[in-house]
Amino acid sequence: MTENGAANDNYKIRHWIIAALIILCAGILFWELAVGIQLEEGFAWDVNLMLSLHEVSRPWLDTLFKAVTQTAGPIILLPITVTFVYLWRRSEKIAAALVVTSFLTSLLVGQLFKIQFARPRPAFFTPLVIEHTASFPSGHTLAAVSFYGFLSVLLWERGHRVLSIIAAAWVFLISLSRIYLGAHYPSDVLASLALGIILLFITLFTYRRLNSASSP
Questions:
Q1: Choice between 40 and 206, residue whose per-residue pLDDT is larger
Q2: What range does the domain containing 105 cover?
Q3: Which of 156, 149, 138 is nearest to 198 (CA)?
């Protein structure tokens, strides 16, 4: 084996070790939050953080976060469709297919957990958006990680670093909007970020494997 080959193998090993550690930490975090919610123990910081955000509410922030949160609602189908068509026409069919399947998977997983936990929505103040499904986990946050998170990776690999950072930051803004608007407890959002990261890494692993298998 050449020195370059050995260095490349070592890089891959470190890469997978880091990925495994991130998935493990995300899994532990999700488990701890899910168990606490299942046992109805509650989290004191949930209330404190929500009330702290509510205290800084302003009309312009209300408008801003309402707009931000919509980008992970039904309107997200538009950028998903545009991304799918763009990648498919560039013959990047694996990436195109995973953009759709990762999003659909996040929807399915989110709905299953909502049914399982059936956590009521927070009611510490009048929410700025009305939701009719269970609170745990945050479907908007899961959708944001599955699409904008994956999009961020694709943009980074193609050298679009600024757009990649914006896409990653958008995940954070959507997550924050769900708490600010009173739609979710912070624990809902944090658990969704952890679960979303796990699903995202599964998507990335699938993407790498399928690309390697299709390479000549």
A1: 206
A2: 3-214
A3: 149
